[in-house]
Amino acid sequence: MQLKECEQCGTQFEARKSTAKYCSGNCRTRASRNRTATGINSAGQPAAAQPKASGGVVLVAGEGLVAQVQRELQDAGRLDTVLGQQALVLAQRMRVVSPDTGSSLSAISKELRTVMAQALDGVAIEGDPIDEVTKRREAKMARLNAG
Ligand SMILES: [Zn+2]
Asked: What highest taxon heads this organism's lineage (predicted)?
């Protein structure tokens, strides 16, 4: 028997085993739950489990995004327009976003979508599948209403 201090509540207790850390099963359960829930270890220090991005930048979207935007603009003949160039810049900004501006990613993507829509405004998109489905459904509805 040896007197030990419970790592969870600090109570002195008689340890039956030299490896015992807690006074009771309750404290052992609470300690393990605390560790997983808060990342705080038994010494009250934050566990070294906080993920830190190295290099300061994270890759958000693949190289493909910029290429895709460029291709769409080129196909529409709008690459050399102010809006076209603006869309390209936005696509590049989406590609590499630093962790502390990560929250603005959705804002950038929304902006990119808006700029792309404006840049491609008036360009006929052939065989848009969503448009086709809508048209077919409307035709069907018209038939049903007529009959
Ligand atoms: Zn205890």
From this structure: Bacteria
